[in-house]
Amino acid sequence: MTSKELTNATFFVIRRTESDTFASVSPFLIQKGLAATVGSVKAVSKMRSGDLMVEVNTTKQVEQLLSLQMLSNIPVTISPHANLNFSRGVISESDLYNVPEEEILEGLREQKVCEVRRITIRRDGQIVKTKHLIFTFACPDLPQTITAGYLRCSVRPEVGHDSAECTGQENCINCKGDHPSYSRSCKTWTLEKEIISVKIKNKLTYPEARLAVTNRTPIQGLSYAAAAKKKSLKASTTQKNPIAREADSLYESSPVSKRSRRRKTFPASDAMDTDVNPSDTDYVIGQASEEDESLLEANFKQAAPDPSPKK
Predict the structure, then answer these.
(1) Positions of the region Disordered (predicted)?
(2) Smallest Cα–Cα separation from 85: which of 4, 139, 141?
(3) How far apart are CA 109 and CA 243, in angstroms?
(4) Is 33 or 260 the better-scoring residue by pLDDT?
(5) SS3 readout for 220-280
(6) φ, ψ at 106 (rounded to 5°)
(7) What is the distance in angstroms between the CA of the first residue and the CA of the last residue of the chain?
(8) What are the pLDDT digits (tens) for 206-249?
(9) pLDDT in tens, 248-304
(10) CA-CA distance, 210 to 206, in Å (whole number)?
């Protein structure tokens, strides 16, 4: 950066000469030090590295800041910011097609142009120059126009190239389809339009409307038969009695063998015993033989009181 470009700079970085940063320094101390040496600056911010970035207002503040060596008894070094003091723009002018870049730069130095680079393209295996020029200005604010001799050229921000000159294949950033992102045939655009329509018509919130639309929208790659089969399997699993499943699992996991269960009977004396533990292996419900069941029923009838009223 030349001395003239340095005086036009606006953003400067203040670093401590020691290995430490300004992370542990009081902001009040920094503000007092800048006000005493430079005056009221436009903005002060702390960078991620822990250094300070200062934006000045006038050229006099630039000179005062560059001569600064101590900031509130802290030794510092001052340097212009590497990127924020420059701006880049593109100029498309057919009359400058045959003019060398060095000549263009020399003719526009008074307008704060510090670098000129022509855009080239590859066509049929050869490098072909274009009428588009990238200008780098030694000022943070991009000028709207410049004067190249008798030509008045408009400056636009550097945003790549025009769609008319693009040789690449169209690719939508929303749905990854082979169309521009502003196309009305985009599936994502159609879906968002339907969500907004449902939201307004049914007076729903955006998440509710999105859920309603996605539920009624068929899933790509899933047939109707597969979806119906999936729902039927889910319904049959839900309808199965969980108590029956638990009883079956307990029956299968019981330590008592099937043979021993068949031999277990219910004694008549214990038929009316209410303190019998159902978990006891001597009392397995439903596993007695038919002869034992008939005997148990007869004993139960003898022990049961006569329900008829006494006369």
Answers:
(1) 235-288
(2) 139
(3) 89
(4) 33
(5) CCCCHHHHHHHHHHHHHHHHCCHHHHHHHHHHHCCCCCHHHHHHCCCCHHHCCCCCCCCCC
(6) -65, -35
(7) 127
(8) 999 999 998 887 666 666 666 666 656 655 555 545 554 554 55
(9) 554 454 544 444 444 444 444 444 444 444 444 444 444 455 555 555 555 555 555
(10) 6
Question: What is the predicted pLDDT for the residue at 103?
Answer: 93
- What average pLDDT does range 121-142 have in this prediction? 89
Q: CB count, 10 Å around CB of 76?
A: 19
242 Cβ neighbours under 8 A, 6+ residues apart: none
Q: How far is CA 71 from CA 45, 56, 214, in A?
A: 15, 16, 61
Rounded Cα distance, 76 and 65, in Å: 11
CA 156 from chain centre, in angstroms, equals 31
Is the distance from CB of 133 to CB of 119 less than 8 angstroms?
A: yes
Longest Cα–Cα distance of the chain, Å, equals 136
CA–CA distance, 137 with 109 (Å, rounded to integer)? 9
Helix (H, G, I), strand (E, B) or coil at 19: coil
CA distance 111 to 268: 117
> What is the pTM for the complete model shown?
0.48
Nearest-angstrom CA–CA distance, 36 and 272:
103
Torsion of CA 187, 188, 194, 197, to 10 degrees: -140
